[in-house]
């Protein structure tokens, strides 16, 4: 083969190939001898060794290296000669004989694999088909299968149950936990429920299924049955809530309800049952905590805890009633909210809110005669959420090696140099019942303030009273802005005041910047608004006089003469016409109202005497005559004053 070059490459053997080659040299057919025989062979070899060995030549290693180098040079010389002289040698691989493959056996193995894969697909399709067939029952007890509604498997529903509830297996029983122990609860009730597989109804002999797979007597309104059966304790069945009511003697003011949720989830059935049971446990635990705190607190008027009701006095004559209302599935009420009005005078074996026999059947649980207060209910729910959130959500330590749960006030106690009393104040926290009482006091005071303002706005048509309530309020503080304005003269003058409502006090900020603090008595607020109305009338008359050209002779907010007024002090304003011949006197008091007097000059009854001889003194105003404002035309006080000014000026 001329002009053809072949290059021979030989890669070194890998570790696996070398291991295979060494393993081939081992003769596994030779039986291993006994240990005694091996020792005898070693002894024989030692005996066969010559007693004297030839001495080792010192240049033997050098000779071996020179020999190896000569061998490599010879090989290199042969390769160069082969390349230079174009003489090649062809190497043919040695082919080993392959064993005869049995095609029939391979075909059988492939057929078996395909059949097993087909069986897996068929079983999966059968399960999918059965999942779309749900057993239903008619009123006559007929069972059938209806396509279109999937039936829930026991393990599938158990997996869904584990998503929201804590479960564990004890022996052959699956139990769950409804309690709030993970949130720091120490309530005595365990809150354990049991999960089991529901018994499936077997179809009877009267079942008749149409060719399409649908029974002709199917009640389509009946939902599919669940494969889970949840059993809760008997004391946690039914529904419950905490009923909060504010009463004044025998008058009901407002009420609110407290519960853990609204039970909006109705599917599956066990979810609704567990939510109701947990709500009953929540209400019982909450009422138990409030009852313990009511017994421990020592207010001026002690709290009363009787049965399932707590009575607290928030204001003189105003009481707060907190009751636990629980009804089972049979309609039996443990506490009837419609009997709360007689709770302070009636006590029986079932509690102050129940009937004498301990149950009342067929009574609606929701209170119907009480005014439901959504703001109070919302603030109380926020309070409960905040309390339970602080129970298991602690602030991070600063620095990181500090103690867990320290508040910011306690962390800065050292740098700020707080004393013992201040440190005790940082540790003290109001109890849950105290916070509820504070919110109820504020809510009642807010309702009372709103009632007083509305009543004055209805009674007094002149001037108008407009109130604007702030929408961004806290549970214990509200704010209202009151604007006093005269209809048609709103651009002349406006009187504004802001009232801050706290738990037991009111703080009023007037137009002139004065700050007045009032108690919870409604008469104080009413008197304050009446005084502000009186000052508004005087300010409106003075502003109107400037627009009409009249002169303000004098203005006094608190005059010291005259009879003692039943409420506040009288204020006066003296106005003179542009010509100076007519004078109007306005006297305003908070309770009776406004009185207007008119005098004219020159006087008709002036006669000179030896004491007053000059004629100029006849220009003094004469006798004051009262103006009957109720008989004058005009829709309000300022319009009548304007009309009077116009007549006197003409």
TrEMBL record:
**Record-linked InterPro entries:** Mediator_Med17
User: Which terms in the Gene Ontology molecular function aspect does this entry carry?
Assistant: transcription coregulator activity
User: Which superkingdom is the protein from?
Assistant: Eukaryota
Q: Name one GO cellular component term.
A: mediator complex
Q: Which residues form the signal peptide?
A: none
One of this protein's GO BP terms?
regulation of transcription by RNA polymerase II
Q: What is its main location?
A: nucleus
Report the locations given in the UniProt record.
Answer: Nucleus
Pfam families (alphabetical) = Med17
Q: What does this protein do?
A: Component of the Mediator complex, a coactivator involved in the regulated transcription of nearly all RNA polymerase II-dependent genes. Mediator functions as a bridge to convey information from gene-specific regulatory proteins to the basal RNA polymerase II transcription machinery. Mediator is recruited to promoters by direct interactions with regulatory proteins and serves as a scaffold for the assembly of a functional preinitiation complex with RNA polymerase II and the general transcription factors.
Q: How does it assemble?
A: Component of the Mediator complex.
Quote the protein name from its UniProt record: Mediator of RNA polymerase II transcription subunit 17
Lineage per the UniProt record: Eukaryota, Metazoa, Ecdysozoa, Arthropoda, Crustacea
């Amino acid at each position: 083969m001329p002009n053809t070059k072949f290059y021979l490459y030989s890669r070194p053997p890998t570790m696996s190939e070398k291991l295979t080659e060494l393993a081939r040299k081992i003769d596994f057919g030779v039986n291993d001898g006994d240990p005694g025989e091996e020792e005898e062979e070693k002894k024989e070899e030692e005996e066969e060794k010559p007693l004297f060995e030839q001495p080792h030549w010192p240049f033997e290693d050098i000779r071996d290296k020179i020999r190896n180098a000569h061998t490599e040079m010879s090989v290199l010389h042969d390769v160069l000669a082969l390349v230079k002289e174009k003489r090649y040698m062809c190497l043919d691989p040695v082919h080993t004989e392959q064993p005869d493959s049995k095609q029939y056996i391979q075909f059988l193995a492939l057929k078996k694999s395909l059949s097993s894969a087909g069986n897996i697909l068929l079983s999966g399709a059968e399960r999918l088909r059965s999942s779309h067939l749900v057993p239903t029952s008619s009123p006559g007890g007929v069972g059938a299968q209806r396509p279109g509604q999937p039936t829930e498997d026991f393990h599938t529903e158990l997996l869904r149950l584990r998503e929201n509830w804590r479960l564990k297996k004890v022996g052959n029983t699956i139990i769950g936990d409804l309690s709030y122990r993970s949130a720091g609860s120490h309530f005595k009730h365990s809150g354990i429920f049991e999960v089991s597989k529901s018994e499936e109804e077997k179809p009877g002999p009267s079942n008749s299924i149409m060719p399409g797979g649908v029974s002709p007597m199917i009640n389509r309104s009946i939902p599919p049955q669940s494969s889970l059966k949840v059993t809760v304790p008997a004391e946690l069945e039914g529904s419950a809530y905490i009923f909060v009511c504010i009463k004044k003697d025998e008058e009901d003011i407002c009420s609110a309800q407290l519960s853990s949720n609204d039970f909006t989830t109705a599917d599956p059935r066990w979810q609704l049952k567990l939510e109701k049971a947990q709500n009953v446990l929540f209400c019982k635990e909450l009422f138990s905590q409030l009852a313990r705190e009511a017994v421990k607190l020592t207010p001026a008027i002690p709290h009363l805890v009787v049965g399932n009701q707590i009575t607290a006095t928030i204001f003189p004559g105003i009481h707060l009633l907190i009751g636990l209302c629980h009804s089972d599935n049979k309609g039996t009420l443990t506490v009837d909210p419609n009997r709360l009005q007689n709770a302070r005078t009636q006590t029986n074996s079932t509690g102050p809110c129940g009937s004498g026999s301990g149950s009342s059947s067929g009574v609606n649980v929701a209170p119907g005669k009480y005014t439901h207060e959504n703001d109070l209910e919302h603030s109380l729910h926020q309070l409960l959420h905040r309390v339970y959130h602080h129970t298991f959500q602690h602030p991070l330590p600063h620095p990181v090696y500090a103690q867990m749960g320290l508040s910011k006030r306690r962390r800065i106690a050292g740098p700020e140099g707080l004393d013992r009393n201040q440190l005790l104040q940082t540790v003290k926290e109001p109890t849950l019942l105290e916070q509820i009482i504070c919110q109820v006091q504020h809510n009642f005071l807010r309702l009372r303030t709103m009632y007083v303002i509305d009543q004055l706005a209805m009674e007094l048509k002149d001037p108008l009273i407009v109130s604007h309530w702030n929408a961004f309020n806290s549970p214990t503080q509200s704010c209202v802005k009151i604007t006093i304005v005269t209809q048609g003269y709103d651009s002349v003058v406006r009187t504004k005041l802001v009232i801050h409502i706290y738990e037991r006090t009111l703080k009023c900020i007037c137009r002139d910047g004065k700050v007045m603090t009032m108690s919870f008595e409604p008469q104080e607020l009413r008197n304050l608004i009446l005084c502000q109305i009186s000052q508004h009338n005087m300010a409106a008359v003075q502003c109107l006089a400037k627009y009409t050209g009249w002169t303000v002779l004098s203005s006094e907010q608190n005059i010291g003469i005259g009879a003692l007024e039943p409420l506040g002090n009288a204020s006066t304003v003296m106005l003179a016409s542009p010509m100076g011949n007519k004078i109007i006197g306005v006297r305003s008091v908070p309770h009776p109202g406004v009185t207007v007097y008119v005098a004219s000059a020159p006087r008709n009854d002036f006669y000179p005497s030896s004491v007053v001889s000059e004629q100029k003194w006849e220009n003094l105003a004469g006798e004051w005559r009262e103006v009957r404002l109720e008989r004058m035309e005009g829709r309000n006080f300022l319009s009548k004053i304007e009309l009077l000014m116009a007549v006197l000026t003409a």
